[in-house]
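#onboarding

Welcome to the new folks! Below is a worked example of what a typical request in this channel looks like: someone posts a single protein sequence, and someone else replies with the predicted structure as tokens. Don't worry about understanding the tokens yet, we'll cover that in week two.

Example request:
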Amino acid sequence: MTPTPGYIAILGAGESGVGAAILAKKQGWEIFVSDFGKVKERFANELNELGVEWEQGKHSEDRILEAKLIVKSPGIPDTAPLILKAIAKGIPVISEIEFAGYYNTAKTICVTGSNGKTTTTLLLYHILKKGGLNVGLGGNVGDSFAKQVAEKDFDYYVLELSSFQLDGMYDFKVDIALLMNITPDHLDRYDNKMENYIASKFRITQNQTEDDWFIYNFDDPNISEIISKGDFKAKFAPFSLTEPQEVGGYINSNEQITININDQFTMSIHDLALKGKHNAQNSLASGIASRILEIRKESVRESLSDFVNVEHRLEFVAKVHGIEFINDSKATNVNSTWFALESMDKPTVWIVGGVDKGNDYSELYELVKDKVKAIVCLGKDNDKIKQAFGSITTEIYEASSAMEAVAYGYRLARKEETVLLSPACASFDLFENYEERGNEFKKAVRSL
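Example response:
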């Protein structure tokens, strides 16, 4: 239900906040934008051009709590005192995605999951665009969804949605939902309860009807359990690495991805641009969604074989004297790193560490025994990593910069071996974010 325009407060003046302001202005809202931090110059200029009131370095509570509607940045937790006060006053607090949804008329294909969602979103966007659809890209990647709804005229949107965005979505309806996997992440935002985090991910299905589709990972026990109990209206299209699916996709015994939507589509996994089991899942999910949208098989096949992966996600950087350097800085949790190590096919020097989010490293033990010849810790406090892997390898070194970590990697690896940055941790102890960490790693490799 689209609300009548009135006074709106937008918390956070980054990509999503400024996008929400652009759409709100177009729809006739009276706008106040507030950011507790410092607003980047680019966004400050956009807000000034828009002619809206904004502030930085504080939240003027009295002004914000007069609003009819609050759009908040996904980075602000629901438990923040200002948010609790707004809710107590009965002011709806929503995400930019929900706000954009009030005015969106295009079909939405939305991707969530603990890992693989960015790759899957970009892969799916690549297939649909190449397949001739008039399609936009938004959510956690691309431009703000709200800004595009205000300024563009797309027929479809592929949106990457985090659990934080989903938490602020109530009436938004997803036409094709993709749920890649659910493993522990961000539990500090969910009272450290896994069931709360799982419920958040399943919000992607909350307003679906019989005309919609739900594509999900059949092999994920957390997803299977909810599906077995749940009351879902959408049509199911599961994907699996082992179990044949009558409607959906799987890997058959001939190492082919097989998609049963409309009629059967098959393709050798060796022809996929993205390697590793997790990427087979990403390709399956993207392929299923593409076939639901009736993209021609030949076009799907071509797109799955020529896609170039996202920066900082198993990104090949360079080969120096036969040693391969791979940047997986985007791996900020153990599960992401599990996927990275699983796809290594040569002895690997593994660069790991940063701000630990309550990591349980035990699920990496077998892979580390199997694939890793030495560990380089890149972080301020490496005790937990040293304790976790000290009994597996004595080859553990500590570095306090990307340059030092790469120098260790270069010294420890031999020709035809790999140096992998896959930190399994957030980056905030030594870097501003995972992008800066990845860029510093690449710079260090290129200076060898």
